[in-house]
Amino acid sequence: MDTIILKKGKEKAVLQRHPWVFSGALQQVKGKPKNGDLVKVIAFDDEFLAYGYFNGSSRVAVRLLSWEEDNLPEELWWRKRLQAAVAARATILSEDTNACRLVFSESDYLPGLIADKYGDYLSLQILTSGAENMKPVILDELQKLTGAKGIFDKSDASARAHDGLEATEGLLWGELPPDFVEVKENGVKYHINIVEGQKSGFYCDQRDNRKILASYAKGKRVLDCFSYSGGFTLNALLNGATSVVSVDSSALAIETLNKNIVLNGFDSTQFSAIQSDVNKQLRLFKEQEEKFDVVILDPPKYAPSRSALDRAARAYKDLNRLGMLVLEKGGLLATFSCSGAVDMETFKQIIAWAALDAGKEVQILHQFSQPEDHPIRISFPEGEYLKGLLCRVY
Asked: Per the database record, which ranges form the PUA domain (predicted)?
């Protein structure tokens, strides 16, 4: 096995169990490891630190797996880690919920692997060369653990390019998922499109937040922006919203949402879907003096990295300013960010700026986070990405 020697003083993060070793921390590479090869990482004084897989194409040169010298992260190690991750989701899956994230990459000690369960099908994202090398083992073990009818590859993320990998998509094992797979989450039914849908096909990370927010919807007029397949919309209708207007720029999202309204037997007269750019539609609502009791803003990732933070902050501020301007006085704003580069304190500051620009007063009633199938590993704070605020706006 090839060996990576770290520069003096660069072992601290490894000793603290952070799973990334950056290329700038490398003193020497002994051998000629290929991308994805297992390597031993040692300190400047030859002390063993960890095992990980190497990638010379990435800024993250080594992704660490095992800190025990006698516990090589080979096939059996991977199988045990997969077993542990799936077992940890047993409390989530039930008669009312058959969709969740089974494996959450570094946060489940399996860098570069994301696996989502949607009913009888799995959606997989393999984002690093090390995980790519273990693909046969991953597929075999996940099929054994879940009994899935089919496993579909959604590894089209830009993250693969950082590891020198091409985007891939297609059937990996078993049956091709149908155009619309029916799943349940907290008793709400969804038709989701794994093959053509965004990311892995659905956003399980808002499961708890949908339920919390729905408890405020009874008798309210709700605006759901970036509605996608309708998670917040459907929960609001289930919990007695007077009406819901859903806005998304994607035709497929609107089509899927309309199917989900029918699937759950909701009164279509209480619901309308608009295919439009959200910022444009919010400005139109303002011009038309349309007002809502609850406004939900769940945009895509505006800050994929810290270098995009300033631009993202301006985008979040403008979006939230517009959202506040279409709220009734004393109405509720539920606003989210899925950008890991934006921490909660920064997000609160952005909302404060938006409130100032809108001439509004804001109270924070609740702070939203990510659910237990998206755990936050204490030695990997980068895994904490989803945050949100429920605000009363005056």
From this structure: 2-87
pLDDT tens-digit map of 242-253? 999 999 999 989
Residue type, 114: I
> What CATH code is carried by the domain that includes residue 23?
2.30.130.10
DSSP line for 206-235: GHHHHHHHHTT-TT-EEEEET-TTTHHHHH
Closest by Cα among 373, 370, 352 to 361: 352
For residues 248 and 133, state if they share a domain: no
Rounded to whole angstroms, how far apart are CA atoms 119 and 101? 12
Within this chain, do residues 30 and 55 fall inside the same structural domain, yes or no?
yes
At 314-362, the pLDDT tens digits run 999 999 999 999 999 999 999 999 988 899 999 999 999 999 999 999 9
Give the residue numbers spanning the domain of 380: 203-393
Beta bridge partners of 116: 101, 123
345 CA to centre of own chain: 20
Contact between residue 247 and residue 225 where contact means Cβ atoms under 8 Å apart: yes
Exposed/middle/buried for residue 131 (C-beta within 10 Å: 0-12, 13-18, 19+): buried
- Rounded to two decimals, what is the model's pTM? 0.92
Query: Of 66, 99, 122, which closes a domain?
Result: 66
Q: Provide the domain count of the chain.
A: 3
